Structures are given as C-alpha cells and as structure tokens.
Amino acid sequence: MVAKRIIPCLDVKEGRTVKGVNFENLRDAGDIVELAARYSGEGADELVFLDITASHDRRRTMLEWVERVAGALRVPFTVGGGIGSEREVEALLRRGADKISINSAALDDPSLIDRLARGFGSQCVVVAIDARQEGGLWRVYRRGGRVATSRELFEWAAEAEARGAGEFLFTSMDHDGTRRGFALEPLARLGEQARVPVIASGGAGSLEDFLAVFTDGKADAALAAGIFHFGEISIPGVKRYLAGAGIPVRL
Amino acid sequence: MDNKNNVMIIEYGAGNLFSVRAAVERLGYTVTVSDSPERIRAADRVIFPGVGQARSAMEKLRERGLDRVLPGLRVPVLGICLGMQLMCARSDEGDTPGLGIFPLEVKRLPAGVKVPHVGWNRLARLSSPLFAGVPDGTWVYFVHSYHVPDAPHAVATCLYHAPFSAALRRDNFFGCQFHPEKSGEAGERVLRNFLAWDGHE
User: Fold this and answer.
1) Which CATH superfamily is domain A5-244 in?
2) Is B19 touching A (CB cutoff 8 A)?
3) Is A11 a catalytic residue?
4) Residue A53 carries which DSSP code?
5) Which of residues 51-90 of B touch A (CB under 8 A)?
6) How many Å separate Cα A95 from the centre of its chain?
7) What is this structure's pTM?
8) Quick check: B121 and A95 CB within 8 A?
9) How many helices (H) and strands (E) does chain B have?
10) Which domain holds residue B123?
C-alpha cells in the first residue's frame, strides 16, 4: 500500500522561503536549503517549492536554487511558480527536480499538459488548482489566486487528467491561511473523481485536520507551510499521530 | 587517486542523473559520468540509471555499443528503475528486447491499480548485501508503470496489485525498481551498501 504523504511547502522569493497568509503578508521563514534538509531529515515525504519571484532574472535564480536543493535533498521534490514552457520544464528536471507544478500556464493553454506528459511522463506533471467557492460552485483562479477564470474545479480537473496530469495540487483559497481545516467536501469529490493522486492544500491548523483530510477528504497527500515553518506542528508529530490513528504513513 | 572510490554513472540520454550523482557524492565517492564503452569497461563500480521509455532507451544503448558492454561487466553494477528493467530479457513496453542479464520479463502494471505506481511503499523479503541493516517493512520511493513480477532473482519485493520484484540480483548485477537516491535514509543505506560491497556473498 502506498503511504499517505506529508508535504511541507516552501514559497520561494529570490532564493529564500516565505509564506503568505491568504496569499498576502509574506513573512521570511528561513533559508531554503537549510529548511529543505531539516524537513527531509524530519521525515517529510516530499517537498513542494513554489517560486513567487517576480523579477526578470527569475528563471536563472530558479535554476540555481533548484540545483542547490537537489544536491542536498534525499526525498522527491516538486517545483512550481510561473512555469510555462517545455524548455523551462526540461531545464528544471535536468537540475534534479522530480516533478513540475503548472497552474496559470495550463489554464491559458491546456495543451501544455499534453505536451509535458508526452515529453517527460505524466508522473512529473502536477497540475495545481486554486479555487474558491462562489455561489455553490468552485471557481478556478489563476495568477496566484488573483484572477478569476471561467473554469469550474471538477470540470477543469477532469480535462487536465484526460490531457495527462499525473497529480493534482488543490488549494482552497477559502481555507488557505485560516488554519481551520482543509476543504474536505471538494477534496473528497475530487479524490473520487480523479484516478491520479490529490494533494490537499490550504487550512491545516491541527493534527485532527491532517487526519480528517485523509479520511473524510480522501486525499493522498497533505501539504502545509506556515505551521511547519514556525514549528507549531512538527512533521514527526503529525506522522506519529496519523500512524496511531491507522493511516499508513512512512515512519 | 583511489580507484575504489570512483563510481561510474552511465549517461546515455535517458533521464537526468543529477540526483543519483548527488547522492553518491554525498557518500564521499567521486563520480565519473560517461557513455564510453572503454571507460565503462575500466570502471570499478557502475550505476546504470534510467527514466523514460524502454524502447528509446535501448536504442540509445545500442547506438553507443553499450548493449554489448553491460552484460560482460565483472564489477558491481546497480541498475535503477528503468535501468533495472533494461537489464531483463524483454519488456512489454514497446515490445523491447533487453540486455538479458536477468532472465525475466517486464510487464505493464495491471488495470485496477493506479498506474504509475508513484510514492512510498514498503519492502519485504529482503536479502542480499544490498539490504544489510535495512529491515523488512522499510519504506522506499517508487515511480514506475511497468514492473517485474515476483521472481527467483528478487532480493526484495513490494506489495502493490500483488507482490512484485522491488530489487533483483544475479552475481555482480543488482537492480532496484525503487529510487534509492530519493528514498531518504533507507535509500542512502542501500546505496552505501552497494558502493561498499566487496564482491563476496
């Protein structure tokens, strides 16, 4: 049986990690390689890095830090943040990234998913989806949650999977940063619909939230940032708690 | 230069070697990366990685003459993931003849389980020096759509749809379906065991 995964997420700006609350108010949470090595040593099953650097030399700095992380890390990691071309993906994979997360670029041109899956294999194509509930439906947002699209979560996920998405990273913008628990209902529905793994993101605040996301939320992996970065919940702590509750985790 | 600390990683255009290389270097070894038959024949220890599609990877080996070099190596050889699969006799993937080092067939994972098999899963029935100090039930990281069914050459199995071969061994040849370079401390131990193996047992 495949283990349920605990994934710390590091937002990266100019080679350092930050974490936003509701995508704003960025706070510096430490050195990227140091944090990555700490999480790997503590039992993180995987890491996700989202580059939110806006400057024109973003691509170059991204390749630099990805290479530094790959040299230090002993577990798989995913890189995301404004990635929009096959060339960029190839360069990142060559520097040791295991998976690439795409979001806005896939919404702008869904055939990017097909091309990446064909070129590099579905297993390295993570489609990240940010959505919020609006009048009974889950509307998909692009540009880091700033721009609404005409897409609806479940319809978009079905299309992305048919095109070759290997995994979903679903963030409920309504829950992100609140620490009041994950968006269990849409997660469960997405988990039932998708034949590829679903990473749940947004809202982790307590040990019980992690248990609920694997039981009621039917997620394959749970992602969190701030609560890990500031030490409020430790990775060994959450994994021991889950193991005690009968969830298969890697200890 | 102490040759015993020099590890050859075969580069033949199938997948990125960065992580394997970094993992071996973290253990204090010097890595040489090459696709030259002469240099590979002269190596003390060889790692044969691979990610991608079996048929195109075999073609790349043949273009470089490596399909004739690899089966003749007498030094410790470790195939990882697709590397291990190419060391078998044949793969369902593109109906591809392999190197024939392991007289086994590579099959697609069946419908009914998620394909690819991605993530952390547990090893069982561990034997061979590769797993010295690694207990049964250890979690390691897999990413694959094809597999080698359980076989007499298996020195580790993993349960997915059924138990399959997570690692193989014949004489000086080892293969891992999982990625030791991505498997945390346990994977590092497997790599260290391979790199330190003195050719006995």
Assistant:
1) Aldolase class I (3.20.20.70)
2) yes
3) yes
4) -
5) 51-52
6) 19
7) 0.91
8) no
9) 6, 13
10) 3-196
